Amino acid sequence: MTERQVLRGFIANIDVLPPLIVTFQFNPESISDNKTVTYEDRNGNLCGNWPGKVYTGGGHRTISFDIKLHGLEEGTNALNPTALDNGISTELAKLRSFMYPMDDAWGTLSGLLGGEEDGRRLASPPDCIFGFGTKILQCIVTEVTISETQFNSLLAPVRADVGITLIVNENSDNALYELDKQHRNLLALLGLQNVRVF
Fold it and tell me: In which order are the strands placed within the sheet that holds 128-132?
């Protein structure tokens, strides 16, 4: 009998080279997916002079969740085996980069090694692809809250709790948003079969 593998969520910045991808070590226990809309009062005259509401605009769709990072005391990154800069430091650096990745990673590395800086500048804020189950959305990261909760003998973090807040790009020219909208409408249509007519 084969064991079924659990899919993991992720956030990714594919506008940099190499792409920065954070695969969730442990999936969030809950995800908050909120959207607000704005209505204003107006007098309607369909059935007399009664106050009505008119749609004036939609607010942002905001997604927020918490993840946990756990590293081993000796570190988890084979490319960076020193205890001082290891543990979960590389994952924390990737998460922080979603807030302000001004240069791509290869350009930064080239500059550190004495080469020419050929990294392209990114418009702020950078795009973020959020993937979780059937949700594949283009977003921007508006908040990353990191609480480092355990450290190794050289005080490199080995455990952390991370809170992430995203705003979904709901522009009509965004292919991922259009796909998500079609999926949502299809699910709502399928839900009609559960309606009972008395």
Answer: 20-23, 10-13, 128-132, 135-151, 157-168, 50-70, 31-44
Answering whether pTM is above 0.70, one says yes
Bridge partners of residue 51, in order along the sequence:
43
Phi/psi region, residue 62 (left: phi>0; alpha: psi -120 to 50; beta: rest), is beta
Helix%, strand%, coil% for the chain, nearest 5? 20, 40, 40
**Residue 154 binned pLDDT confidence (cut-offs 50, 70, 90):** confident
Q: Where are the alpha helices (DSSP H) in 81-153?
A: 89-97, 105-112
Q: Is 198 helix (H, G, I), strand (E, B) or coil?
A: coil
Closest CA to 104 of 13, 10, 23: 13
Fill in the DSSP letter of residue 96: H
Work out whether the CA dihedral 86, 91, 92, 96 comes out positive or negative: positive
Query: In which residue are the tokens 């954070």 written?
Result: 22
Task: Tell me, rounded to whole angstroms, the distance of Cα 70 from its chain centroid.
Answer: 19
pLDDT in tens, 80-120: 656 556 678 888 988 998 887 555 555 555 555 555 544 45
Tokens of 128: 């973020």
Which residues, 6 or more positions from 184, have their beta carbon under 8 angstroms from its beta carbon?
A: none
Look up tokens 């490319």; give the residue. 79
H or E element that contains 183? helix 175-190
